[in-house]
């Protein structure tokens, strides 16, 4: 069985200041090479039946201009699609800030692919100061873990969730990795690591605060 802690080291994490709808925004970017051909990764991330096996049940019209909904999670509109290569969607959770998700797959050879996931949001400065980019990034690390396992035939998805004893160390290590990405983007090291501590507490169920 894959050691899930090892999968974290294979992810490149970036934090970037950018624009969304002509307003200041923050992007968290994850890049990971997977040992699967691009067409297999693409269908795993765009076909409803396959998405539910590693992520969540999804409903709606999965074509450009259509709307989707992930069960108990986000919903939005399909904004762009470059079939086999990339898609971009709006990502709306409750009353959270405007955000967009962009997913890109690049073949690196016949049976390996580079996956890039970019989530851009207009985040309240107080929220960013409290939790840092890990508020979003930790969840996407877990999603990439789901893809990584699924493509290797390891049961995943809602029916096969790993227990807290396994996932809590994963969440803590992910939070720390996002603190380092924030520091690389210019964040104060002490503040970034304290934000990571709060993010870990949230994801492991010891904090009642709500992420955006």
UniProtKB/TrEMBL annotation:
Pfam family membership, one: AHSA1
InterPro entries recorded: ASHA1/2-like_C (IPR013538), START-like_dom_sf (IPR023393)
Domain of life: Bacteria
Domain Activator of Hsp90 ATPase homologue 1/2-like C-terminal per the UniProt entry, residue ranges: 37-151
Stretches of the chain forming a coiled coil according to its record: none
Family recorded in the similarity comment: Belongs to the AHA1 family.
Protein name: Polyketide cyclase
């Amino acid at each position: 069985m894959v050691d899930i802690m090892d999968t974290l080291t294979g992810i490149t994490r970036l934090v970037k200041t950018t624009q969304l709808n002509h307003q200041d925004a923050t992007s968290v970017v994850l890049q990971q090479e997977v040992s699967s051909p691009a067409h297999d990764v693409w269908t795993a991330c765009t076909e409803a039946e396959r998405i539910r096996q590693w992520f969540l049940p999804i409903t709606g019209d999965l074509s450009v201009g259509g709307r989707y909904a992930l069960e108990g999670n986000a919903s939005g509109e399909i904004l762009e699609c470059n079939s086999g290569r990339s898609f971009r969607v709006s990502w709306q959770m409750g009353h959270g800030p405007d955000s967009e998700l962009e997913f890109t797959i690049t073949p690196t050879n016949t049976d390996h692919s580079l996956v890039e996931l970019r989530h851009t949001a207009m985040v309240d400065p107080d929220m960013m100061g409290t939790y840092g980019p890990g508020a979003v990034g930790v969840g996407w690390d877990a999603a990439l873990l789901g893809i990584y396992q699924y493509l290797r035939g390891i049961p995943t998805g809602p029916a096969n969730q790993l227990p807290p004893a396994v996932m809590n160390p994963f969440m803590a290590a992910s939070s720390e990795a996002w603190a380092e990405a924030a520091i690389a983007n210019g964040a104060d090291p002490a503040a970034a690591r304290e934000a990571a501590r709060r993010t870990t507490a949230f994801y492991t169920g010891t904090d009642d605060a709500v992420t955006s």
